[in-house]
Structures are given as structure tokens and as C-alpha cells.
């Protein structure tokens, strides 16, 4: 009973396979052939008990039975398609007792090939995931914060330590000190790194729109609302991190709503009644003195303590001047990569000015000053004349402009004329040189001098 059942099961399985199966005994007499073999080879079931050589021209079964070796060849099926015929010996207790022919159609082969390709792709994905994991090594994220300043080093150490936990963080510091950059680094080092990182600048959004931006709205919540409704930033940040920039500018009533999200982990959309559960980590930032705002009742004390579980204070640039050389190098490298130009040299006098300046706009201001300088500097050289007047103030006149103001004006004029000519000719250098009345080699020299060689121009 049991044996019969198993036999029937094996038979059923063989019949339902998309691969043709034919079994012969030790002299080549067909014992069994499944439906797929009958269809593919065009051999009826009546072939059973006949010798395989009598019903199938392409078979090499005699050779298999003689040598005990597997043979494979491509044949054409009954409907003219290519198929693989694989014939194998069957052994029992070490003795050859028969053979099996497998007929695999193109269709099945292509599925197998797809499976193979899929597994290759999976391997490739794995490979890239590993490479990504390497790229995401924690320290890389904090690279912009490499610092020689003890206070800054403390902050970075603390940031790295708390990044992995889920605590809310308050980043304080003057404008342009890198609060946004630090929040991004923390998110990418946290266990939420593969989840959304949603930023919102509370000061940039009008108070009446802030609630729907943060919490979304239901369809028809107000006249101009989309009929389908819209998720807010908190919903979008589910399982990830939300960065509330300029939190000090958040109106008091909105502060109460943020507090509720932190305490109860839920909120309602504008015009909605159904509470929505969220799991978000909050990183807030401000350049205002929140403690003072709390004292003046402009910021909720309870929210302040909820956000300020860990405070990371980024010192202003003037208090860590020792970082300026490193920042100049990294920012110039970034800018030159963007503009596709070689890194310029900095004149010692210009460098001194960069070191002495007070940087009220901090790293952002330094970035702007350097970007302006490489655009003004006609060659691979940044001199005092390429820095804004604010930085040059107080410098003795003689030292101020070693290259000469006239030379700078001439260079700038020449550079502009070359750009105009290239624009007018759609980037055609031969025609541009003609227009300017100089040789092609001369033009190339000047293009190199002004860092214009790799720029693309389209006709005006
Ligand atoms: N350590 C650093 N290394 C390189 N670039 C930096 C560094 N810190 C800040 N920057 C750059 O300075 C600019 C300002 O940084 P960021 O926007 O993070 O400052 P912020 O404190 O958030 O400013 P704000 O308060 O005005 O929003 C950015 O372009 C950033 O890339």
C-alpha cells in the first residue's frame, strides 16, 4: 500500500515535469517515457517495450550503455525547436542496469539561464552591498569634522558615540558651523541609516503651513487641500530620522504638537481624527539660545528637555582657527572637483588673511570666500586681491595687491572676452581664436590659464 502510494507519487511528479524523461533497461528497451518526452521527441507512449534505437534516431543510448558515460547533444524537437538531450547510465549496486534520457527544451533552458543570471545578479548585489557597507563605515561620515581643536574633538567623539543609540539630539552652534552636516553624519551612522532622513527648516515655512508640512493633511481638510490628502514629514520619516532645523523658530502651539509626537509617538493629520503611529528619531538644531528662550517663555521647557537629551555644541570657526588650513584644503578640493579645475596655490599673504579673519558666517562663509576666489583667480593662484574687501581690511596698502589691481582687471576682462567668443561660436575653438585675433595655440594657453579648458559652451 505504502510502496504503491510512493510509486504513484513519483509517477505523478515525473509526468508533471517540463523535462522529458525516458528510461531504458540494460539492453535499451524502453521501460517508461513521460508526457514531456512524448511531446518533445514526438514518440507515442506505445514505444514502451520497444528498443530506443528503433524509435529515436538521435539517441546515443547504445554508447552510454556500452561505456557507462554520460553524453549530451543538441537535437531538434518534434516542433522544430532546439533541445538538449542528455543520456546517462543507471547503476544499481555498482552494476549498469539501464539508462535515462533527459530532454530539456529551449524554453526550460532559458528559464535555467534566467535562474543562472538571477543568481549572478544576486551575487553582484551582495558584492555591491558589501562595498556600500565599507563606504558607510562610521568614521567616513564624520570625516568633515576632523579637527585639531580639543572642544571640537570632544563634540565629534560624543556625536559618534550617541549616533548609534536612539536618543534625541540637539545640535547648537552659530550659522554655518556644520549643524546640518553633523545631523546627516549622525543619521548615516545610526541603525536607521537605511531608512529615510527627512529635513525640515522650521524657519523657512510660514507658521500657517508648518502643521500640514509636519503632520500632513486629510483629503478636503482645507479649500486648497488635495482630495487624496498628503502625508507630512513625520509620516515620511517613519523608522528613520527627522531633522528639525532652526527649531528655535517653531511657534509655541506647534511645539506642543511636537512634544506629543515625542511622548506618545503618535499624531493626527490636519483634518484627520485617526491617530497615526510613528517611530522617528528627532535631531533638532538651532543657532539661538534655547535656554534663554525658555526663560523668556518663548520655548517650552518640557520640549527643550525632551530634545536636549544630548546637546552637541559646534564651536564657531574663530574659536578653532587651527582647523582653518584643513578646511581650506578640503573645501578647495571639493570645489575644484566640481569645477573640474586643478587645485590653486594660495599666496602666503592671502592665507594669512584667511587665518586672521573672524568668520561670522563660519565654514559656510569660508566656503563662499574660496568659491569666489577660484572664480576670480585667473590662474592656479589665489592672492589677496581675490579675497573680499572685508578680509583685506587692515592690511597695509602695499601688501594688499602684490599682483597689481590693473593686472587683475585686465585678466578678468580677457577671461570674459574669451568666454563671450566661445559662447558666440558654440564652443568652436578655431572660430573663437579667429574672432579674438589670436592663434589657436594662444587660445589654448589662455583657456588653461583661466581654468576654462574643460568647460562646455553652447551657442547664445
Ligand atoms: N567641517 C566641515 N568640513 C567641510 N565643510 C563644512 C564643514 N562644516 C560645514 N561645512 C560646510 O559649510 C556649509 C554650512 O554647513 P551647514 O549647512 O551644515 O551649517 P549649519 O550650521 O547647518 O548652518 P545654518 O545654521 O545656517 O543652517 C555647508 O556647505 C557645509 O558643507
Q: Helix/strand/pairing class, anyone?
A: alpha/beta
How many strand units?
16
Helicity, in percent?
40-55%
CATH architecture of the largest domain: 3-Layer(aba) Sandwich
* Overall CATH class of the largest domain: Alpha Beta
Specify the CATH homologous superfamily of the largest domain: P-loop containing nucleotide triphosphate hydrolases
The percent range for strand residues is 15-25%
Counting H and I runs of at least 4 residues, what is the number of helices? Answer: 21
Number of structural units classed as domains: 4
Main beta-sheet strand count, sense and barrel state = 5 strands, antiparallel
The unique ligands bound to this protein are:
adenosine-5'-triphosphate
Low-confidence stretches: 133-138, 394-405
Protein name: Fis family transcriptional regulator
GO molecular function: ATP binding; sequence-specific DNA binding
InterPro entries: AAA+_ATPase, AAA_lid_NorR, Homeodomain-like_sf, HTH_Fis, P-loop_NTPase, PAS, PAS-like_dom_sf, PAS_fold
Keywords: ATP-binding, Coiled coil, DNA-binding, Nucleotide-binding, Transcription, Transcription regulation
Amino acid at each position: 500500500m505504502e510502496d504503491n502510494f510512493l510509486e504513484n507519487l513519483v509517477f505523478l511528479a515525473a509526468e508533471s515535469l517540463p523535462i522529458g524523461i525516458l528510461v531504458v533497461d540494460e539492453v535499451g528497451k524502453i521501460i517508461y517515457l513521460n508526457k514531456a518526452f512524448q511531446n518533445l521527441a514526438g514518440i507515442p507512449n506505445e514505444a514502451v517495450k520497444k528498443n530506443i534505437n528503433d524509435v529515436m534516431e538521435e539517441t546515443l543510448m547504445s554508447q552510454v550503455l556500452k561505456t557507462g558515460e554520460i553524453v549530451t547533444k543538441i537535437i531538434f524537437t518534434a516542433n522544430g525547436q532546439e533541445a538538449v538531450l542528455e543520456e546517462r547510465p543507471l547503476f544499481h549496486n555498482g552494476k549498469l542496469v539501464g539508462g535515462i534520457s533527459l530532454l530539456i527544451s529551449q524554453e526550460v533552458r532559458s528559464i535555467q539561464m534566467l535562474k543562472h543570471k538571477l543568481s549572478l545578479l544576486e551575487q553582484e548585489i551582495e558584492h555591491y552591498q558589501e562595498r556600500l557597507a565599507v563606504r558607510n563605515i562610521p568614521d567616513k561620515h564624520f570625516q568633515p569634522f576632523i579637527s585639531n581643536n580639543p572642544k571640537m574633538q570632544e563634540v565629534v567623539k560624543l556625536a559618534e558615540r550617541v549616533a548609534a543609540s536612539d536618543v534625541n539630539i540637539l545640535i547648537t552652534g552659530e550659522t554655518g558651523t556644520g549643524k546640518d552636516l553633523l545631523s546627516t553624519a549622525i543619521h548615516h551612522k545610526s541603525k536607521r541609516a537605511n531608512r529615510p532622513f527627512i529635513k525640515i527648516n522650521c524657519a523657512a515655512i510660514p507658521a500657517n503651513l508648518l502643521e500640514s508640512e509636519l503632520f500632513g493633511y486629510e483629503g478636503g481638510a482645507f479649500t486648497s487641500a488635495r482630495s487624496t490628502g498628503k502625508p507630512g514629514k513625520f509620516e515620511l520619516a517613519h523608522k528613520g530620522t527627522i531633522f528639525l532645523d532652526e527649531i528655535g523658530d517653531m511657534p509655541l502651539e506647534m511645539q506642543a504638537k511636537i512634544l506629543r509626537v515625542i511622548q506618545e509617538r503618535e499624531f493626527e493629520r490636519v483634518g484627520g481624527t485617526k491617530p497615526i503611529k510613528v517611530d522617528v528619531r528627532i535631531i533638532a538644531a538651532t543657532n539661538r539660545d534655547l535656554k534663554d528662550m525658555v526663560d523668556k517663555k518663548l520655548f517650552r521647557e518640557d520640549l527643550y528637555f525632551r530634545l536636549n537629551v544630548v546637546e552637541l555644541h559646534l564651536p564657531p570657526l574663530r574659536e578653532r582657527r587651527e582647523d582653518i588650513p584643513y578646511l581650506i584644503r578640503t573645501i578647495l578640493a571639493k570645489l575644484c572637483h566640481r569645477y573640474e579645475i586643478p587645485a590653486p596655490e594660495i599666496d602666503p599673504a592671502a592665507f594669512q588673511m584667511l587665518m586672521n579673519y573672524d568668520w561670522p558666517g563660519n565654514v559656510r562663509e569660508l566656503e563662499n570666500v574660496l568659491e569666489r576666489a577660484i572664480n576670480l583667480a585667473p590662474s592656479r593662484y589665489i592672492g589677496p586681491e581675490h579675497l573680499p574687501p572685508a578680509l583685506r581690511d587692515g592690511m597695509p596698502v602695499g601688501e594688499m595687491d602684490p599682483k597689481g589691481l590693473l593686472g587683475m582687471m585686465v585678466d578678468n576682462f580677457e577671461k570674459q572676452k574669451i568666454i563671450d567668443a566661445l559662447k558666440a561660436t558654440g564652443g568652436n575653438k578655431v572660430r573663437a581664436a579667429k574672432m579674438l585675433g589670436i592663434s589657436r595655440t594662444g587660445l589654448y594657453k589662455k583657456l588653461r590659464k583661466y581654468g576654462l579648458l574643460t568647460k562646455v559652451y553652447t551657442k547664445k
